[in-house]
Amino acid sequence: MNRRLLSILLLAFVIASACGFLVWRLISGRLSASQPAATTRVVAAATDIKLGAVLNATNLTTIEISGAIPKGVILKPENAIGRGVLSDLYQGEPILDNRLAAPGSGGGLAATIPEGMRATAVRVDDVVGVAGFVTPGMHVDVLISGLPPSTPSNNDQISQEGTLTETLLQDIQVLSAGQDIQKDAEGKPHPVQVVNLLVSPEQAETLSLASNQTKIQLVLRNPLDTKIAVVPGTSMVNLFKGQIAAPVKPRPATRVVRKAAPPSYSVEIFNGAKRSEQKFSSPEGQQ
Known about the structure:
Elements: H1 3-34, E1 39-45, E2 60-66, E3 118-123, E4 139-146, H2 155-161, E5 164-183, E6 189-199, H3 201-213, E7 215-221, E8 234-235, H4 236-239, E9 264-271, E10 274-281, H5 283-286
Antiparallel strand pairs: 1-2, 3-6, 4-5, 4-7, 5-6, 5-8, 9-10
């Protein structure tokens, strides 16, 4: 066979193979696109569910999600029934395991407290509660005002400085404020004059003592601002600085320096069997 004809046939075979591969890729891509993607049925909220509610069968429904499912999504309703809600859920939203309290912990405020933390109540009014702008999820600083305990060493200082204000705690999360998270039979919240703060056990002791002995003021802060500021505190005298007499500085103690006695020497005199001693001062002591 002619070598030239063989080369032409071989080239035609290669071109035909490449065209066939391209056609196969195009057709298979369209066929896969036309086929429905695999779906997974997951548990979702049937209605809007508020923080602290305990889930039951009427709160739940199931929806289908195509493709990859969210991490921690609940697949069976029985795994969600009876568990408390840690944050608000909205209708049609898939329910994640980390949005619910542990099984058996119930609902309400207690279910929202992380392990190792405590919720402590602080009685407030419109001023202390930042005029109603302190809401659950916000972060606040806790200020205290009062007269420090007097001791014999600081009586004068307290009388001069007057009332002191200091920042006791910083970046404290608010669990509830101005209303209970549980609703009454009519679906209305109970207005109460307390704010529940999320604190550590040590902070709970400090806050309990401060609420009984001093006046507390809450200061609203940006939840994204987690920096702990170094605040020295202030006193009443600082508010009127320049209009009252400056505190009297204590006088330094007078130090008495006593001169050492001038050196001396003694001479023993023997007169026969009789012995006597006579003392003389040194020349430096006589100057």
